[in-house]
Each structure stands twice: as C-alpha cells, then as structure tokens.
Specification:
- There is one protein chain.
- By secondary structure, this protein is mainly α.
- It has one domain.
- It has 5 helices and no strands.
- The longest helix has 29 residues.
C-alpha cells in the first residue's frame, strides 16, 4: 500500500468516525435512549453502502479507502456489543436479544440489497 492510499484511508476513517458520531447523536435525539437506534442506523446504513461498493465491483485501493477507511470507522461492532450488554444489564434481555439478532438480520439484508443495487450501477 502506498503512502497516499494509507493517508487517504486514515482521512476517510476520520470522516467516517465523525459521521458515525453525528448520526448516532442525531438519531438518539429523535428516537430517545430507550433502544440503541443510532448504532443500529449506522450499522445498517454502512452494510448497505458496503454492499453497493461490492456490487458495483469496486476493489483495490478504492475499496480499501471507502470500505475499510470510511465505512469501517462509520460502522461499529464494539458499540453494538456494548449497547446489547447495557440492555441486558438493565434487566432487558428481550431488548438485548432483539438488538443482537435484529442487527445481524437487518445488516445482512442491507448488504445483500446493496450488492444487488450496486450490480445495476
């Protein structure tokens, strides 16, 4: 990987992290804090966008920068796990299970939908 590609991935990662923060905060402001809809939103949107990239045949350095840098920092596995643990710790095991299973199913569905749509581009 060249220095320019590495720098682009770092900058895209910073932009993705900022976009995640503002999205999570914005969604939480509208939906409330009873369920982690902000984390769910970024993970589903990121899955859809990654699917679009893959379906459109984006590869190489472009995929590294956009998929690994921007979308890798936009989506968040650790926050998803922490949110689920928090729900369980609050005595809400059903909400925790819904968050875990729902995120997996919706994320996979979004990725597949994105791949399909990306194939049309």
């Amino acid at each position: 990987m060249s220095f320019v590609v590495a720098l682009a991935a770092v900058l895209a990662g910073g932009a993705g992290a900022l976009a995640r923060h503002f999205t999570v905060v914005g969604v939480a402001a509208r939906a409330g804090s009873g369920f982690p809809f902000g984390t769910l939103t970024v993970n589903i949107a990121g899955s859809l966008l990654l699917g679009l990239l893959l379906g459109a045949g984006v590869g190489g350095d472009a995929l590294l920068v956009a998929g690994g840098g921007a979308l890798g920092s936009y989506t968040t596995f650790s926050a998803w796990m922490a949110d689920s643990d928090g729900l369980a710790g609050e005595g809400r095991p059903r909400a925790a299970a819904t968050n875990l299973a729902g995120s997996l199913l919706l994320g996979l569905g979004a990725l597949l939908l994105g791949r399909l749509a990306g194939g049309w581009l």
